[in-house]
Design goal:
With 167 residues, this protein is an alpha+beta fold. The protein folds into two domains: 43 residues, no CATH class; 97 residues, Alpha-Beta Plaits. The chain is built from four helices and eight strands, in the order E-E-E-H-E-H-E-E-H-E-E-H. The strands form three sheets. A three-stranded antiparallel beta sheet has the order 1-2-3. The protein has a three-stranded antiparallel beta sheet with strand order 5-6-8. Bound molecules: iron/sulfur cluster (2 copies). The site of one iron/sulfur cluster has 13 residues, from helix 3.
Amino acid sequence: MADWSTAGSCQYAGGYFPLLALKGGNMGMKIDIPIGMMVSDVVRSFFHKPATRRYPFERKEAPEAFRGKLIWNLEKCTGCQLCIKECPANAIELIIIDRASKRFVMCFHADRCTYCSQCVFNCKFKCLELSHTEWELAALSKEPFTVYYGLASDIEPYLEQAGESEA
Ligand code: SF4
Ligand code: SF4
């Protein structure tokens, strides 16, 4: 347990101030902070805008290189499955409904993804990207972490069939 106590004094801005020592207990840590410096920081903070943002009420756009939710472009996909082979987290599946007519469903497991971008770099057809606008993926249940991409006319029968085989 850390414990605060005054310990000694130090010269600060031309005067002597008592030191506040934080003893880190078992961690063996000791930090000396002049009380005068602390008080002036507290007073100054009353007249300054907070350094932090009141998220989620105030938001700032994420930088373009930010790695959020995986987005897949069905139109460009050839079904080569290189992305699946390269994914170290088994976070993507490609369900082939009909290869000849390019009917694929992609299943993305957001809870397994490490956002390493390996799949994006390896897709020769540039069908994958990690979105910098969709990144707030936290949820209270497991369902939103499994995302299906593709045509609704392919996803719905696939999910019905998968549900029947599980029952
Ligand atoms: S690597 Fe690209 S083209 Fe190949 S299956 Fe994945 S997304 Fe489709
Ligand atoms: S970003 Fe990495 S972990 Fe996530 S799906 Fe792509 S390869 Fe897998």
